[in-house]
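Entry 14. Structure prediction run on the chain below.
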Amino acid sequence: QVQLVESGGGAVQAGGSLRLSCAASARTFFSTNLMGWFRQVPGKEREFVAGITWQGSITNVADSVKGRFTISRDGAKMTVYLQMNSLKPEDTALYYCAAKSTATQSYNIWGQGTQVTVSS
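Output returned:
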Protein backbone atom coordinates (compact mmCIF):
# COMPACT_ATOMS: atom_id res chain seq x y z
CA GLN A 1 0.00 0.00 0.00
CA VAL A 2 1.27 3.44 -0.91
CA GLN A 3 1.14 5.47 2.26
CA LEU A 4 2.67 8.29 4.27
CA VAL A 5 1.72 8.95 7.88
CA GLU A 6 2.73 12.15 9.63
CA SER A 7 2.90 12.72 13.36
CA GLY A 8 4.38 15.16 15.84
CA GLY A 9 2.34 18.27 15.25
CA GLY A 10 0.85 20.28 18.07
CA ALA A 11 0.64 23.64 19.77
CA VAL A 12 3.73 25.44 21.04
CA GLN A 13 4.72 28.93 22.09
CA ALA A 14 6.96 31.09 19.97
CA GLY A 15 10.58 30.10 20.38
CA GLY A 16 9.69 26.49 21.06
CA SER A 17 10.48 23.34 19.11
CA LEU A 18 8.64 20.45 17.53
CA ARG A 19 9.75 17.42 15.56
CA LEU A 20 7.53 16.06 12.83
CA SER A 21 7.83 12.49 11.62
CA CYS A 22 6.69 10.93 8.36
CA ALA A 23 6.60 7.16 8.14
CA ALA A 24 6.49 5.62 4.67
CA SER A 25 5.07 2.26 3.75
CA ALA A 26 7.51 -0.17 2.18
CA ARG A 27 5.91 0.25 -1.23
CA THR A 28 6.28 4.02 -0.97
CA PHE A 29 9.87 3.74 0.20
CA PHE A 30 10.94 1.54 -2.72
CA SER A 31 9.12 3.54 -5.41
CA THR A 32 10.32 7.02 -4.43
CA ASN A 33 13.65 8.77 -4.23
CA LEU A 34 12.93 12.15 -2.69
CA MET A 35 10.89 13.19 0.31
CA GLY A 36 9.59 16.65 1.05
CA TRP A 37 7.81 18.65 3.69
CA PHE A 38 5.28 21.25 2.66
CA ARG A 39 2.96 23.52 4.61
CA GLN A 40 -0.28 25.28 3.88
CA VAL A 41 -2.30 28.00 5.51
CA PRO A 42 -6.00 28.34 4.62
CA GLY A 43 -6.42 30.63 1.65
CA LYS A 44 -2.78 30.40 0.61
CA GLU A 45 -0.85 28.14 -1.73
CA ARG A 46 1.03 25.15 -0.42
CA GLU A 47 4.63 26.11 0.35
CA PHE A 48 7.73 23.94 0.05
CA VAL A 49 9.61 23.71 3.35
CA ALA A 50 12.37 21.13 2.95
CA GLY A 51 13.41 18.10 0.92
CA ILE A 52 15.81 15.20 1.24
CA THR A 53 16.79 12.13 -0.76
CA TRP A 54 16.34 8.77 0.89
CA GLN A 55 20.12 8.41 0.64
CA GLY A 56 20.43 11.65 2.57
CA SER A 57 22.96 12.97 0.11
CA ILE A 58 20.92 15.96 -0.99
CA THR A 59 18.90 18.29 1.21
CA ASN A 60 17.14 21.54 0.48
CA VAL A 61 15.51 23.96 2.90
CA ALA A 62 13.38 27.00 2.10
CA ASP A 63 14.90 30.38 2.89
CA SER A 64 12.00 31.16 5.22
CA VAL A 65 13.02 28.37 7.60
CA LYS A 66 16.74 28.08 6.92
CA GLY A 67 18.76 27.97 10.13
CA ARG A 68 15.70 26.96 12.16
CA PHE A 69 14.39 23.78 10.49
CA THR A 70 16.37 20.65 9.74
CA ILE A 71 15.28 17.72 7.61
CA SER A 72 16.70 14.25 8.13
CA ARG A 73 15.82 10.66 7.40
CA ASP A 74 16.26 7.16 8.76
CA GLY A 75 16.28 4.70 5.88
CA ALA A 76 16.07 1.67 8.13
CA LYS A 77 12.85 3.03 9.63
CA MET A 78 11.65 4.48 6.29
CA THR A 79 10.96 7.69 8.15
CA VAL A 80 11.68 11.34 7.43
CA TYR A 81 11.88 13.98 10.14
CA LEU A 82 11.51 17.73 10.29
CA GLN A 83 13.10 19.29 13.35
CA MET A 84 11.65 22.74 13.88
CA ASN A 85 13.37 25.10 16.29
CA SER A 86 12.82 28.76 17.16
CA LEU A 87 9.26 28.51 15.94
CA LYS A 88 7.42 31.67 15.01
CA PRO A 89 3.68 32.39 14.79
CA GLU A 90 4.06 32.59 11.01
CA ASP A 91 5.11 28.93 11.01
CA THR A 92 1.55 28.02 11.95
CA ALA A 93 0.19 25.77 9.19
CA LEU A 94 -0.88 22.31 8.22
CA TYR A 95 2.31 20.42 7.45
CA TYR A 96 2.33 17.70 4.83
CA CYS A 97 4.84 15.05 3.98
CA ALA A 98 5.17 14.06 0.32
CA ALA A 99 7.12 11.56 -1.73
CA LYS A 100 8.48 12.07 -5.22
CA SER A 101 8.00 9.11 -7.49
CA THR A 102 11.11 7.68 -9.12
CA ALA A 103 9.10 7.01 -12.26
CA THR A 104 7.34 10.34 -12.71
CA GLN A 105 9.68 12.64 -10.75
CA SER A 106 6.69 14.37 -9.25
CA TYR A 107 5.33 14.57 -5.73
CA ASN A 108 2.40 12.24 -6.16
CA ILE A 109 2.12 10.64 -2.74
CA TRP A 110 0.90 12.79 0.15
CA GLY A 111 0.22 12.27 3.81
CA GLN A 112 -2.87 13.48 5.61
CA GLY A 113 -1.13 16.44 7.22
CA THR A 114 -0.36 17.40 10.80
CA GLN A 115 -1.26 20.75 12.34
CA VAL A 116 1.39 23.01 13.85
CA THR A 117 0.19 26.01 15.82
CA VAL A 118 2.62 28.57 17.24
CA SER A 119 1.29 31.16 19.63
CA SER A 120 2.96 34.47 20.42
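The mean pLDDT is 94.
Filed with the rest of this week's runs.
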